[in-house]
Amino acid sequence: MSNMIDPDVLARATAKVREASGDEVIAEMFRRSMAENLPAVAERLPDGTTFVLTGDIPAMWLRDSAAQLRPYTLLCKDDPALQEVLIGVLHRQLEYVVHDPYANAFNREANGAGHTSDETEMSPWVWERKYEIDSLCFPLDLAYKLWRATGRDDVIDARFKPAAEAILELWTVEQDHEGRSPYRFQRHDDRPSDTLVREGRGRETRPTGMSWSAFRPSDDATDLGFNVPGNMFASVVLGYLEEIATEVLGDEALAARAKELKAEIDEGISRFGTVEHPTYGRVYAYEVDGAGAALLMDDANMPSLLSAPLSGYVAADDPTYLATRKLLLSPENPYYYSGTAASGIGSPHTPPRYIWHIALAVQGISSTSAAERQQLLELLRDTTGGTGLMHEGFDVDDPTQFTREWFSWANAMFCELALVHAGIK
């Protein structure tokens, strides 16, 4: 499907990107990505919903399908046709959540495609059942953004409340993973990060107030169970849920449940999710187990600690965030790499010394400095390996060496950085 975004809306946005960046190549990369990215992955279905491929994989990830829409939500106010596509994505996500809130990726129809040999409770609709707390954050975030951007009554339809209740129930259960969780997951391949230890239960944890997650946004298993950036995002969207429950649904009980869980997660992050670092002072940990272990690192996939201002959990000038940011953008973060072509954050999901375009875009969007945003836009422009497109990871010494030639989520994050730099946010 072509022209999912109105040409006039795109032309105005491109002109603002061109003016802000002073760079015709950046402006053209933005225009091309915005024009081509969504039509390449989105399919309008007969039921009015929208199925979104995750780039080069024939399945729809809850996280990726929403993350790919972020720049479009910034421009959809004056584009009714684009609104239809985006609301269709939300409504399909909500149906998937009700079907199986522990699943992270789904099929277009109940065709049984995907990781059918995994030891977990699969269904023909589910492509993969790696439970990630952030996968449930993104539909609530998208619902709120579309409701606020469009003002349309049909954003929050009959699908919303059952999905919200399923999310609340799961997050509450997973506050006590050891005592209450029914979730198990094992995959028998040669990647330890693809499976959970202890016969599919994961490493032992103790309650913190936060909600447990089996996997990270990278689809890699958590080391310590409580993923702090995922819980930060959960806190934010629970605030959104309280607002929607109050203003749209008129459901005081749902609003109260969301408010209470948000307060418990916030307290857990405050008590267990921060540590004192000898160099940087008080910083956020990436993961904790509730028993004293803490992991100081960040991963390129979002939500990350670096992306906390994007999630809405902290302001970009918050002192604890700024201290954490300094740690993350230094060798103290084991996945921060510096080379002759670039420096930035990579992931255990990709080869050593490969950094991610998503992380570079997040670094720019979360910066308080226009000069830093401009520098990172130019770095993204110069590290496509001659393709003019964003990738997953690339070699810090040789950008022609990369993973995933076309990665729609990364293209979307480049576009969001360009829009933020142009004052559209």
Task: Write a compact overview of the structure shown.
Keywords: Hydrolase. One of its GO terms (molecular function) is hydrolase activity. The protein is mostly helical and 425 residues long.
Count, helices: 16
Low-confidence stretches: none
CATH architecture of the domain at 57-334: Alpha/alpha barrel
**What structural category do the secondary elements indicate?**
mainly alpha
Across the major sheet, the strand order is: 3-4-5
What proportion of the residues form beta strands (DSSP E)? Answer: 5-15%
Distance between the termini: 26 Å
| Shape designation | globular
Rg measurement, Å? 20 Å
CATH class value of the domain at 57-334: Mainly Alpha
The pLDDT mean sits at 97
The description of the largest β-sheet is:
3 strands, antiparallel
CATH topology of the domain at 57-334: Glycosyltransferase
Oligomer: single chain
Total number of beta strands: 15
Helix content: 40-55%
